[in-house]
Amino acid sequence: MGTSDERSELVAAFVRHLRSERGRSEHTLRAYGSDVAALLEFAADRGVDDVEALRLADLRAWLAAQSTAGAARSTVARRAAGARTFFRWTTRTGHTSADPSLRLVAPRRSGSLPGVLRQGEAERLLDTAAVAADDGDPGHVRDRAVLELLYASGIRVGELTALDVDDVDRAVDLVRVVGKGDKERMVPFGLPARRALDGWLSRRSELATSDSGPALFLGNRGRRVDPRQVRTLVHRMLAQVPGAPDLGPHGLRHSAATHLLEGGADLRMVQELLGHASLATTQIYTHVSIDRLRRSYEQAHPRA
To answer: Rounded distance, CA 25 to CA 163, Å?
Structure first.
């Protein structure tokens, strides 16, 4: 690991392992690769230029430096998880004789969600997208369909951008999604999303090129839309909704889950819809619903 090139090759080998053997998403691959590269650079700056020489104290110093720099607890926790995954791999492959991350403890995730939209704000967001699509511009028609499907289904942005045309069954209003760990699930959507998708599919050919392939959503140059473009779209459209928090696509996922529970949906149904491996992950949305209930009670009840 002595030189920059050697560190880069080690990180590249680790990422190849994640891609070929662990089935991780491209987002996770980029995050873990970047985190491990930053760790090795941090260690090299401290004079530890051999991965075998890395110790628990070095890993703790790395996490502490990030916390001091203002990184969120969730970010530090993710980076600690990436380091543990990396050192399990280096130990198994013989790059290290022992795993220095065995006792590495990251700060607990806060258990709270970023802001979510109120139902009225979600409605205004989608109404704004519908008005924009009325001009007939195929990009605006696509944008409306993207927003409607994100909110209707609660799927992740990476899952949305990976969709192909044949993944949408408009006869029964279901979309076939491949989530984390290459697990496939069928997710329902409602009539507004179906109408928005119908509108987009009737105009898709206007943006399609020889590079489009089977992608459901296309960028303005005809290639499959990427997560960054969708994030930009969500931020831009939410800026037009008075009082709405500045959220990304994941905020629409949080909002969809919260609104489902507020409407009486079963927690396990929401777990299945979101593709959570553990019910404990889904339960965080009940906290949001209870918090809102408490605020409403305190504002409305004369004896609150």
So the answer is: 14
Residue 30 among the catalytic residues = no
**Mind listing the pLDDT tens digit for each residue in 243-273?**
888 889 988 988 888 888 888 887 788 888 8
239 is written with which tokens?
């800026």
Which entry of 60, 176, 180, 235 is annotated as an active-site residue? 180
Domains of the chain: 4-92 (1.10.150), 119-300 (1.10.443.10)
Q: What residues contact residue 64 under an 8 Å CB cut-off, 6+ apart?
A: none
User: Is 32 tagged catalytic?
Assistant: no
Q: Is 226 left (phi over 0), alpha (psi -120 to 50) or beta?
A: beta
pTM for this entry: 0.62
pLDDT of residue 168: 96
Kindly give the interhelix angle for 249-262 and 138-153, rounded to the nearest 10 degrees.
50
301 annotated active-site: no
